[in-house]
Structure formats: structure tokens, C-alpha cells
Amino acid sequence: MNKTLICAALLWAALCLDLAHSQSLSGYYSRNDFLLAPPAAFADGLLGFVNPANLALLQQSETRFLWSTDGTRAASFKDWGLFWGTRGLGFSTQRRHNGNRAVTDFNLATGFGSRAVGLGLAYVWSTGDRTAFGREKQFALGAIVRPARFLSVGLLGNFATASSNREGIAEIGIRPLGTPQLTLFADAALQNGMSLSEAPWSAGAALQVVEGLHLVGRTFDSEAFTLGLTINFGKSGMGGQAHFDSEREHAYNTYMIRAGGVKPGIVTAGKGKRHLALNLKGRMDYHKYVWFDKDTNRLYEVLNNIRAATADLQIGVLALNLSGMQIRPEHAWEIREALKQAQAAGKKVIIFIDNAGMTDYHLASVADKVVLDPEGMLTLQGFVLGRTYLKGTLEKMGLGFDEWRFFKYKSAMESLSRDRLSEGDREQLQDFVDDWYELVRREVCASRGLTPERFDQLIDNETLFTAESALRAHLVDTLARWSALSEVIKKVTGKSLRSSSAKDLRERADASQAWGEPPKIALVYGLGVCAMDEGIRARWLERVFHNLAKNRAIKAVVFRVDSPGGDGMASDVVAEALRKCSEKKPVIVSQGQVAGSGGYWISMYGDTIVAGPITITGSIGVIGGWIYDQGFGEKIGMTEDHVKRGAHADAGYGITLPYLGVRVPARNLTAEERDRIEALIKGFYETFVAKVARGRGMSVEQVKNIAEGRIFSGIDGKANGLVDEVGGMLTALAIAQQRAGIDVNDDIKVVEIPASKGLFNLSPGLPGVKTQIAADPILQFIKFMSERNGQPLPLLVPGMYPE
């Protein structure tokens, strides 16, 4: 920022040098009398026509038409200008007359930068009587710097291409209150061959009477002055300006109309006169591909749209279509909570479903009106968690498995060593399912006016509901299809509402007129298995946290964790990077559906840990196991042979399956080798426990009392100290904002890392063995295990958490 200011100031100073003089350029103020105020201070100037750096600050495309009159009649055109700009690019033209002479100016401009620093370049040329009007082909270089919400500084240099004529303009805007309510401004223009005392200048103020209505006054060194008015209506606006000469006589008027570019308006569509429709068909995920991924919905984007609709006075109804939605229970709960906030703000919520299960219905039940397809069905059968056991399969394949389990609840390897739930696993899974069921029962009953006994009866005795039986049971309010949304809204509200898209909503939310870059909060994702170069990508995450710690623009970090654990080293690499980052700025952890074992390891140093009520958290423990050849090679006709040096060199050596690249050790470990592994796992566990104690401010004994690999719901995690707050991503962002000292009413910018999965999916998705492995969580688990055979692993196996 400081370097930019210095460079821009030096540029302007260079432009003002008294170079060899030829015919002067026409005056800055006479060329730009359509301006109400300096372009860095008010209303984005003329969309890059004067200072091209304005194009770096534009949020949306906008067009303006301005004209002046001979007298007071607005319809009597004299001079006119057409100005168009979008973020980064602008093209404008204006027509000027002087008696029978006329000139037409053209301006092609580009701008780049941020809301704090904008730079721009323009090429300007003219047709008509250029000499009489002092026009030359020229380049314009501009900068607008807004280091804070109180200050805006503009610098502009105009370079004639065919002569040595130069012109420098400096401008300043000051907002004493830090808001658009009052803006004070001044500017001055200096051409080469002109002394500072000869430089023309102007000064004035813009007053926001009410939002969308500004009065602007400007006086010039010549003692001329202007009085202007602008009125905005959202995506359109109008304005006018009266020009008075040095004798204080009224000279002429200029008028303006604009379209596009949402700005805070003096009038809106009316409170509650619009509805927002969100079709959530497809998979709910954290990321999507930039192109060709229309069937993926991003969780943060959905939550942010609901939050924006909650704050938008024009939105009276939120309508969601859950038909064909695929969503994890915890993510559904977060959306449900966001909708409850919308209802608390006075919005009506309508949700459409067709064939819904427990999770879909849990989300839908929050609505003021639940709408079921006339041919739809509800399947409300409760919740179940379990797993597939492969012990018998391994035996039939000729594969042996030795489970290294030393903690009661650390059950990840049971899938390979047993044929049914162990006592510890049954206990922890039942506790979680009970918390899950009771949460859904409590919230559905509260929303639908059911008693807990009635809810249990519907689940246990009826289970399947046709559209008509669901209506009779008061599980839904009406039968209709998404295509009949307008009719349903009219029945609910008694009137027709205009639709508002999510894009419109974002444009209105981005219509802030605040100066400077808003405070930034980074939303970093740690998703999938804990591994160095896949899943959470620990090496990459380590760099991310190191960079965030040094980035002064980032005021706080929210780390969204959705991981079942995996490689302990990968987990610790991320945890240590997060801990160091938290020494520089607040780091809030938001746990998604699963943040257990290694997923808890990467969470434990967060300043605050936020989990959903049905997040799986905890599982502080370590486990290992050994898959080996017990006749497998013989069955498939593969053998191995080797030479070695070193007593244990052959541990882990065996046949390698072609194509899959999986190695199957030829033997089990010896008793001596197993004893060493046991000591390693127990030592690893002690390290894990000690680090959790450090991160959570607990004693080692306190952690051990809730460890041994036991999973907990977010509700129980809050009770035992593993979690600080029950909430979702939006809760974590609000805490981060507060911890960073950002006022709750201030705008923030959330920077998602990473922002997407990439441009498009490069996987062809053709059927085959590798495709099957990539798609099947159990096969992925076996592959992960075979690649880390014998390693101590803080890991949860698929089946221990809802998918």
C-alpha cells in the first residue's frame, strides 16, 4: 500500500514538470463539466472516462447518459455523453459544441486492483474540430487509493502522444464519519508550463440526505459553482446539476440517467415484495468445478444466500426445493439453522420435497409451509449406523489380518478383524444414534407441533407415508409441485411476489458504498482423509497457514474440518501450522459432519472449536493393523522371492498386485516386531493425548477420561470440553469476526481457500477397477490401509459417521 502511494505521487510529480511547451490542452474542468465531484470522491466518477482507475472499483456493469442544455429546458440537448463501464473495462464518448464547431471525444479504458488500490490506463482520441477545442490524442494513467473508510486519494496523469503536453490532477475525498453520509472533497489540475499558483482547483461536499439521495455542492477557483442532486432506485437512477458562472448567474444545467450497477436506493421494490427460490437438486458439497458442474451445490454459497436474503428487506419469502438433493445430516442442520434465523427476521419459508427420508424431512420441517409432491412419499424409519465386516472375505481370499488395538473404543480395524460390533463400538455408536434421533425428534416436534410420543409412533408404527397420508398426519401442509411455486406463495402470503435470483441478491448485498477493502476472514477447508498429498493435502495446508499468518489483510481464519483422520504425521503437520497461525491472529475451527481421530488432531489448537450437534468429534486414539498373505498369492497364482540383509528387511515385502499397485506382505510380524509396534502405538497415543491437553487447556487425566478412541456427538463434545460452541460455519465466522475486533455491523469479505475444485472434472468417469475403488469408501479404506500397512493411525472407518 505504501509503495503504491509513493509511486503514484512520484508519477504525478513527474507529470507536473515544466517540459517544452506546445499548444495547451483544453482545461480539465471544461472537458469534464458532467462531473458532480472528483472521480475518486463520489459516485465512481464517469465510469473511467476521467480517471480509468474507477474501473477497478466498480462492482457491476453500469451505463450513464448525460446531457446539457442551452437554458433550463431538459429536453433541449446541447452537449451529451454516453458512459459505460464494468469491472476492469470501460468505453465512453461525449459530444461538445461551441457555436457551429463541435468535437466528439472517445475513451477506451481498463482498470485493475482492489477496493483499496485501483490503477487504470486509458487511450483518448477525438474527432471533429480538435484544434479549436484543444484536443490531442493522449494516454491517461490513473490511481485511486483508499487506505481506510475515511480517505480516498486520486491521481491522474494525461500524456499527449503527438506533443510534449502533460497534465497532472490530484484529488482527495474525506468522509469524517467513515460513511457516505458526508463526503468532503477537493482537487486541482496542473499542466506543464503552468505555475502552482495558476493551477485551477475545486472543492465541495456531498451530503446523503437519505439512502439513495445525495446533494452535491462544488465551488471553483474562478468563483463559479455547481449544485447537484442524484437519486438512485437500485438498478437505475437519475440526477441533475445546475451550473453558475463567476458572476453567480445561472448558466446551464446538466442531467443524468443511469441503468445497471445496483446502488442503495431511495425506494425499493417494497418490504417483503419479492421471493428467493433456491433449487437444491444435486449433491451438497463444499466445492464445485468452475465449469460443467451444475449438479453440485456449495454449502457456504447456500448459507450465504440465505443470510443475504435474511438481511434483504425486499425478500419476504424463501422457497427451497429439496427434490433430488443429496446432503449429509450435519450440513442439513446448518441450512435449517440459517432458515430459522430468516424466520426470526420475519421471512416466510416454504420447502418443497418429493421422496424424502429422515434428513430431508428434518430440514423441511422447519418451513412455515411444507409442500409434498402429489405423488411423493416420506420414508421416516429412524437412524442406523453400522459397518460392513470383511473378516470372512479376507479369510476366503487367503489374507490374514492382525489387529493392533489397545484402546476400548478405537474400533477402526474391526471391519477387517471381526464379524460384528465390539462392546465398545456398540456403546459409542448407540450413544451417537440416540443423540441424533433425539435432536431430530426435538426439532421436528417443535416445528410441526407434534408430541415426542406422536413422533415415535409415526416412526415406529407407520414409517412410510404417501402424499395423502402425510397430509393427514400433519407432516406436510399441502400437496403441489415446484412448478406451482407462484400459486403456493400466493396462498401463503395472500399476494403475488416478484422473484429475485441469488445473483440479484448478491448484487444488492454488494452495493456498499464504503471506501477501502473490507476486513477479510479466510475460510480454509481441511477435507477428506488426513494424508500428505491427498485428502486434506497436509503439505499444501501447512503452506496455506504459514502464508495466512503473515498476511496482514487477513484478520482471522476459520478452518472448516470434515475429516475422519488417517496419517498421524499429516495431522500433526497441519495442527502445528494452525497453532503457529493462531499466535498471530484468531483461528476458529468449524467441524462438519466428521472431525474425529486425525480430524480432531488438526482441530485441537483452534482458539474456539465449533461443532454441529450431530458432528462426530473426538476419537482421541491410535490404532494399527497388519494385512498379510495367508494363501492369497497361491490362490491367484502369484509368488514372490527375495534376498535381504537386515533381520527385519522382509517385513512388509510380498507380492504386488498389478494395476492396483497394492503390496501384500508375505508374512505376519514376529512377536518381537509386534511388541515394538505396540510400544510405538502406545507412545503415539500418549503424544496425542498430551497435545489435546495442551490445545484444550485440560489436564492429561481429563483427556484420558474421554479418550481411548471414543467418538462423541457435537452435543456431548460440548459437555465434555472437546468443543466450545454448538453451531455451524456461519457461527464460526461470526465468532471470528468478533475475535478479530470487527464490528458486527461492518461488512467482511470471506476468502475461501481453495475456492473451487478446479476448472472442470478431468476424470472421464468410465467404468473400471480404478473408478470403482475411487467411488467406494470401503475399497478406499482398504487401499489406504494397504499403503500404510503397519503404521499407527488416528483414523475412523467409513460407517462410523453418517454419509
Task: Describe what this molecule looks like in 3D.
The chain has 803 residues and is an alpha/beta fold. The chain is built from 24 helices and 36 strands. A 14-stranded antiparallel beta barrel has the order 1-2-3-4-5-6-7-8-9-10-11-12-13-14. Strands 26, 27, 28, 29, 30, 34, 35 and 36 form an eight-stranded mixed sheet that branches. Strand 6 and strand 7 form a beta hairpin. The longest helix has 26 residues. The chain is elongated. The protein starts with a helix and ends in a 16-residue tail after the last helix. The N terminus is likely disordered.
| Shape field | elongated
Structural class: alpha/beta
Mean pLDDT: 90
Provide the low-confidence segments as ranges. Answer: 1-23, 766-773
Distance linking N and C termini: 46 Å
DSSP strand content: 25-35%
Index terms:
803 residues; alpha/beta; 14-stranded antiparallel beta barrel; eight-stranded mixed sheet
Question: Outline of this structure?
Answer:
The protein contains 24 helices and 36 strands. With 803 residues, it is of the alpha/beta class.
How does the SSE layout of this entry go?
Layout: H1 2-15, H2 28-31, H3 54-57, E1 62-69, E2 77-86, E3 89-98, E4 101-113, E5 117-128, H4 130-133, E6 138-148, E7 151-160, E8 166-174, E9 182-191, E10 201-210, E11 213-220, E12 225-232, E13 236-244, E14 250-260, E15 274-279, E16 282-285, E17 296-298, H5 299-311, E18 315-321, E19 325-326, H6 329-344, E20 348-356, H7 358-364, E21 369-379, H8 391-397, E22 399-404, H9 414-417, H10 423-448, H11 452-462, E23 464-466, H12 467-472, E24 478-479, H13 485-493, E25 498-500, H14 502-509, E26 520-527, H15 538-550, E27 554-563, H16 568-582, E28 587-596, H17 598-601, E29 608-611, E30 616-618, E31 624-629, H18 632-636, E32 654-657, E33 662-665, H19 671-696, H20 700-705, E34 711-713, H21 714-720, E35 725-726, H22 729-739, E36 749-753, H23 769-775, H24 777-787
Parallel strand pairs: 15-18, 15-25, 16-17, 16-19, 18-20, 20-21, 21-24, 26-27, 26-36, 27-28, 28-29, 28-30, 29-35
Antiparallel strand pairs: 1-2, 1-14, 2-3, 3-4, 4-5, 5-6, 6-7, 7-8, 8-9, 9-10, 10-11, 11-12, 12-13, 13-14, 21-23, 22-31, 30-34, 32-33
